[in-house]
Design goal:
Blueprint (H helix, E strand, L loop, with lengths): L3 E6 L10 H13 L3 E6 L1 H10 L18 E4 L4 E4 L1 H11 L10 H21 L2 H5 L3 H15 L3 H8 L2 H20 L12 H16 L1 H10 L1 H14 L5
Helix pairs in contact: 1-3, 1-9, 4-8, 4-9, 9-10, 9-11, 10-11
The structure holds glutathione.
Amino acid sequence: MPEITLFDLSSKPKNFCWSYNPWKTRLQLNYKGINYKTEWLEYPEVAPKFKSLGLEPNPQDVNPTPYSIPTVIFHSDNKAIMDSKAIAEEIEKRYPTPTLPIDTPTREKLGENFKVVAGSLVPELVARVPRVLLNPTSREYFERTRAERFGMPLEEYEKKEGGEQAWDKAEKGLEAIAGMLKEKGGPFLDGSQVSFADFQVVGLLRFMEILHQSLYERITKTYPEFGKLYDASKQWLERDNH
Ligand SMILES: N[C@@H](CCC(=O)N[C@@H](CS)C(=O)NCC(=O)O)C(=O)O
């Protein structure tokens, strides 16, 4: 019997993990070898499902989306938790071995640089999500809610703010993270010990690779350290669809 249910986002042509937020949790579950199962939700199903589990919405200042993926249920006591960081802490508490350090100085240091990279690349990535991955009900929801957030249709946002200018803005953060990966010899940010901070980066790389191989390669060709981290984590990326 699976001990945990992981809620993840549906996709086409078949369900598999694509978004970098649920990847953080899935990487942790795979790393620890926990017996879990996945329940796939279309975007419009997320809020009703999590309300029915009795979850409180995300605080507005932390996440503009009230109900979000990843969310998990621990079946031993039916506890439901939303948000990858809160989930990570609870998993670490319940399944301490093998250890996955979470609140490390490295994660703190990664934070700002990661925000620069992920934030700058939004216009380069976001319009691809409905095009490449989403089924019609999620596609309609995603295009509508993101157009509201960015104040224009996604394709226009992509044309206006994506491309080279987005990569230029991301450069400083990419360089800093590559520097961090080199500092302790790799393949992980803390050298030979993998930590939750690594899964943040690996999740983003996997998301980009799924959207288009060239996006992933643009990073790993310039900064091979990212490729080394990715390769060292491949074993935990294998299970992506159940
Ligand atoms: N900081 C949160 C972010 C979660 C998040 O925003 N997830 C997105 C998918 S990647 C989501 O569920 N969005 C739901 C929506 O847009 O309605 C975490 O790490 O769990």
